[in-house]
Amino acid sequence: MKPAPAKSSGKAVSKARAHCPIARSLDSFGDRWSLLILRESFSGVTRFDDFQKNLKVSKATLTARLATLVKRGILRRVPIEDGARRMHYKLTEKGKELYVIFIALRQWGDKWTFDGPPPNAVVERANGRIVAPVEVRNIDGEVLKPRDTVLVRLS
Questions:
Q1: For 36, what's the count of Cα atoms within 13 Å in the CB-facing half-sphere?
Q2: φ and ψ at 137, to 5 degrees?
Q3: Which pLDDT band, with edges at 50, 70 and 90, does 14 fall under?
Q4: Which of 22, 54, 82, 95 has its CA 20 to 30 A from that of 16?
Q5: Residue 85, pLDDT score
Q6: pLDDT tens digits, residue range 104-127?
């Protein structure tokens, strides 16, 4: 089965990028502002004004990034209340599945980008326990390292 052609903001994508799921994923949500919008979304932010206030981003940039995330099916626009003209932005199932990537990215940043302990941590809401490190595991639950895996062509 051939992968669908990759698209990136209306520009043609190289054949090499079209076959790389990492490049295709980054085309969907990988610019700085989109990542920060998604970070805010995972924290419960849904309103345009709150995104703008928290991120200190221009209206034009925020509008463009939100439109792209909606177009790509990561966020959806929903009326704030039934019949309301004002909209807010909610994560779709596709968007919610990015959560594990954000936790892994945050954990990497906590470990490698601070000179001391990080200023905050992700904890379970129910009991305040710190979230365990994200790990790649095999079907039996054993932790895998890069040397334990290989990329194989499926078609």
A1: 14
A2: -130, 155
A3: low
A4: 95
A5: 82
A6: 999 999 999 999 999 999 999 999
Which residue bears the tokens 């994508």?
Answer: 13
Question: Per the confidence metrics, is the pTM higher than 0.85?
Answer: no
pLDDT at 142: 97
136's tokens: 């790649």
Q: Which amino acid is at 155?
A: S
**5 phi/psi in degrees, rounded to 5:** -60, 140
Mean pLDDT of the residues in the chain: 89
CATH fold for domain 31-148: Arc Repressor Mutant, subunit A (1.10.10)
Give the Cα separation of 151 and 24 in Å (integer).
Answer: 17
Of 16 and 150, more confident = 150
